[in-house]
Write a structure and sequence with these properties.
heterodimer; A: mainly beta; seven-stranded mixed β-sheet; 0% helix; 48% strand; globular; B: mainly beta; 11 strands
Chain lengths: 116, 115
């Protein structure tokens, strides 16, 4: 168990550019989540996957945001035409759905995005 | 909608003193409750969780929290602060429904430990 990993750890981009982040969950976990955390705030839910299916998206996830988990393993989060307001820490988490009870979400170290 | 309120965005304690971080929740049904810790430039680590049964929950690093339904509170405590406890702490709530259990986080409390 190597934990949840995210790449890159830091990204600086110019406004209007596209960026893509990658998340590798804990290998046996079938659920994967993306959160956004801005300075001074707690993480806010963006979207989640059960295997390869994207089952819920927050209204925070505008049309410029897209997430995929093509084979039910790693996931990518792409932001098109970045805006300065997109500057934040993007966190990925994973969990194992046993069908009942609570499943602990394990977080990765995050990708910090700065849009100039 | 469920939510949590963390009282105090910054808390300072002396090394060896009691740590008390406050969290109140709002939920229409008995929730799951959590405390996470975040060190600078790192992701969140689960300290402890309340899911049912025992109202006093013990977590890692000597932390514990007590679920008080009558007060809708889930305060985090540690008898003796250590320098390594300096971090940001997030209280979070999740419902017990089937399917995806959405986790809602508070705004965080930064803990400073003074030598």
């Amino acid at each position: 168990d190597t934990g949840v990993s995210q790449n890159p750890r830091h990204k600086i981009t110019k406004r209007g550019q596209n960026v893509t982040f990658r998340c590798d969950p804990i290998s046996e976990h079938n659920r994967l989540y993306w959160y956004r955390q801005t300075l001074g705030q707690g993480p806010e839910f963006l979207t989640y996957f059960q295997n390869e299916a994207q089952l819920e998206k927050s209204r925070l996830l505008s049309d410029r945001f897209s997430a995929e988990r093509p084979k039910g393993s790693f996931s990518t989060l792409e932001i098109q035409r970045t805006e300065q307001g997109d500057s934040a820490m993007y966190l990925c988490a994973s969990s194992w759905d046993r069908g009942r009870g609570y499943q602990t979400q394990y977080f990765g170290p995050g990708t910090r995005l700065l849009v100039l | 909608a469920q939510s949590v309120t963390q009282l105090g965005s910054h808390v300072s304690v002396s090394e060896g003193a009691l740590v008390l971080l406050r969290c109140n929740y709002s939920s229409s049904v008995p929730p799951y409750l959590f405390w996470y810790v975040q060190y600078p430039n790192q992701g969140l680590q689960l300290l402890l969780k309340y899911t049912s049964a025992a109202t006093l929950v013990k977590g890692i690093n000597g932390f514990e929290a007590e679920f008080k339904k009558s007060e809708t509170s889930f305060h985090l405590t540690k008898p003796s602060a250590h320098m390594s406890d300096a971090a940001e702490y997030f209280c979070a709530v999740s419902d017990r429904g089937g399917g995806y259990q959405k986790v809602t986080f508070g705004t965080g409390t930064k803990l400073q430990v003074i030598p």
